[in-house]
Write a structure and sequence with these properties.
5 strands; 27% strand; alpha+beta; 4 helices
Length: 145
């Protein structure tokens, strides 16, 4: 299990990303680690930039748990609510959108939706909670391979 609360700033995001990746490096392939880093970087930097307005005033909490099927992640903050358009699909087909057709930040959310599973969001008591799962190869298969 990994649990960390840190200030909502760009430097804290970088430091926290390194700590989270280091914690799970031994139970992920390099490709899985890259995918996790991409998802977390998008989510955490969006919080810094949009939820807190890049003020650094506020706290982000990141929790991750590895189980037999993957990595469950939750990110919470007490900034402004996440616009629901971030979680909605831009269209109903599986084609990748053209980046120029997306609103500012739209491609990052497309990547998050594309790479993560079980993506969900709720706002409770003025606190945002975004949760997702990253499917990983089972640890036993990794050891055998």
């Amino acid at each position: 299990m990994f649990h960390l609360s840190f200030p909502a700033s760009a430097i804290s995001v970088r430091t926290s990303l390194r700590a989270a990746l280091a914690r799970f490096a031994r139970v992920m392939t390099p490709d899985e680690a890259s995918t996790l880093e991409l998802i977390l970087a998008e989510v955490l930097n969006n919080i810094v930039e949009h939820s807190y307005g890049d003020t650094g005033v506020g706290t982000i909490t990141l929790s991750m748990v590895r189980d037999t099927q993957g990595l469950s992640c939750s990110v919470s903050d007490d900034g402004v609510p996440l616009p629901m358009t971030c979680l909605s699909e831009t269209d109903n087909n599986d084609a990748r959108p053209r980046p120029e057709s997306l609103p500012e930040g739209g491609f990052g959310w497309f990547l998050i939706r594309d790479l993560a599973t079980n993506l969900g969001y709720t706002r409770n008591d003025n606190r945002n909670l975004l949760a997702f799962r990253l499917t990983l190869a089972p640890v036993l298969e990794r050891a055998a391979g």
